[in-house]
TrEMBL record:
GO terms for molecular function: beta-glucosidase activity. InterPro entries: GH, GH_1_N_CS, Glyco_hydro_1, Glyco_hydro_1_AS. Signal peptide: none annotated. This is Glycosyl hydrolase, family 1. Its EC number is 3.2.1.21. The keyword Hydrolase applies. The gene is yckE2. GO terms for cellular component: cytosol. It comes from Listeria grayi DSM 20601.
Length: 456
């Protein structure tokens, strides 16, 4: 059997995309609540109303057969305006207990794109004080939930938060400020890992970036160099910092050329060097392809796509790959295997895939069915490659596709669905938010029941 008995077959969500209850029980607004929604898409106020449906949802996760549920904790519920909120603690205590009572391993992310608005207004991550606020918040999490959590993820897709902050947070900052803010996040993460390790909590802690292998457009040596540069900038900058406690030298070169080298104190260097990750969680949706730069820059389009840095690389279409309907992301299951090998070769740490999935419009039929064979095909092809990666020696202990239930996409609304469970609402009509099991629900249940043996 490729997949061990304790392999964590799971599924994923994030707080602001699924919970709703955006200002209830003492919650503060997050940066996601205060930015205007993208044209034609809903806001995050109700989302899938998971805050009020969590018991029903966990019962569905149990029926689905999940061994793990990867979710995020809303900083804005736990520490609105910097003060501990007992009702926020209560919600996640209840959720974690409910999961455990159903034999589902809770895998929380500390921070998933939803910075408290009060911190955002004071400069967000560009303000060094946000490091302290994050550390205090982490201490509260570890103290309250640390006894029942084995795997903590620090920051979801810090790399995408940096490269797509215009999309994800509505920020328009210079490269210089972007990478100063990024540096503060890296220090905050290292301080969280320090707290966790020094507190002798019973589990492990690691980062959760979005990692994708990068192909050179052609066999030209210059294209290979461009691929290495893009990979260093997009991937290794973030993982080298989390695992080695240092900046990647090629990424650093790009920062120098962009005039974006951050200010780093001796204390920052020390805390990063001494406090590193126990495992790596990574999200994978697509691969990237680049060629050598011709000096003409094109702007970043969304959080998955490649872009250009003059003098280093520019994004290219990969003619060998189909693309998704939404946003034209390349679909590349073998790329998942390539990516897993690259990460494991570099870092030799246990890996878990914390996001992977297909966003599509789904149709609810009159008899309450959703025939999402396209999603099954996508997941099957990725699981097959994941299986091969494990057989080839990668230490991979779990797979949590995005998403456990339908939720709101980062910027393409509710109509872009990823879930195993259909939530009956549209962008502008909440209906009754009733849950329906999609065909992929029954298929994934079979995959889990057979320990990945039956992928048909
Ligand atoms: C990842 C994020 O970037 O991809 C999720 O961690 C996000 O929050 C997911 O929802 C899919 O992207 P999108 O833009 O389709 O929602």
């Amino acid at each position: 059997m490729t997949f061990k008995d304790n392999f964590l077959w799971g599924a994923s969500t994030s707080a602001y995309q699924v919970e709703g209850a955006w200002e209830e029980d003492g919650k503060e607004a997050s940066v996601q609540d205060i930015r205007p929604p993208f044209e034609g898409t809903t806001d995050f106020k109700i989302a899938s109303d998971h805050y009020y449906h969590y018991k029903e949802d966990v019962a569905l996760f149990k029926e689905l057969g999940l061994k793990a549920y990867r979710f995020s904790i809303a900083w804005t519920r736990i520490m609105p305006h910097g003060k501990v909120n007992p009702k926020g603690i209560q919600f996640y205590n209840d959720l974690i207990d409910e999961l455990i009572a159903n034999d589902i391993e809770p895998i929380p992310t500390v921070f998933h794109f939803d910075l408290p608005a009060s911190l955002h207004e004071k400069g967000g991550w560009l303000n060094r004080e946000t490091i302290d606020a994050f550390t205090e918040y982490c201490q509260v999490l570890f103290d309250n939930f640390g006894d029942r959590v084995t795997y903590w993820q620090t920051i979801n897709e810090q790399n995408m938060l940096v490269f797509a902050s215009r999309v994800l947070e509505g920020n328009k900052t210079s490269w210089k400020d972007t990478f100063q803010g990024n540096h503060h996040m890296l220090v905050a993460q290292a301080r969280a890992m320090k707290l966790y390790h020094e507190g002798n909590y019973p589990g492990k802690i690691g980062p959760a970036p979005n990692i994708s292998c990068v192909y050179p457009k052609t066999e030209r040596p210059e294209d290979m160099l461009a691929a290495e540069y893009f990979s260093a900038f997009r991937n290794w900058l973030f993982l080298d910092a989390a695992v080695f406690g240092t900046y990647n030298h090629m990424a650093w070169r790009i920062l120098e050329k962009l005039d974006a080298v951050p200010e780093i104190t001796a204390e920052d260097r020390q805390v990063m060097k001494e406090n590193t990750a126990d495992f790596i969680a990574f999200n994978y949706y697509n691969s990237s392809t680049v060629s050598a730069s011709d000096g003409k820059e094109s702007a970043a389009k969304d959080q998955q796509d490649s872009f250009a840095i003059p003098g280093f690389f520019k994004g290219e279409k990969n003619e060998h790959l189909q693309t998704t309907t939404f946003a034209n992301w390349p679909i590349d299951p073998v790329g998942l295997r390539n990516t897993a090998h690259q990460i494991y070769s570099r870092y030799r740490l246990p890996l878990i895939i914390t996001e992977n999935g297909l966003g599509q419009r789904d149709e609810l039929t009159a008899d309450g069915k959703i025939h999402d064979d396209y999603r099954i095909d996508y997941l099957r092809s990725h699981i097959e490659q994941m299986q091969q990666a494990i057989e080839e020696g990668v230490e991979l202990f779990g797979y949590c596709p995005w998403s456990a239930i339908d939720l709101i996409s980062t910027h393409e609304g509710f109509r872009k669905r990823y879930g195993f469970v259909y939530v009956d609402r549209s962008d502008f009509d909440l209906k009754e938010l009733k849950r329906y099991k999609k065909d992929s629900f029954y298929w994934y249940n079979k995959v889990i029941r057979t320990g990945g043996q039956d992928l048909k």
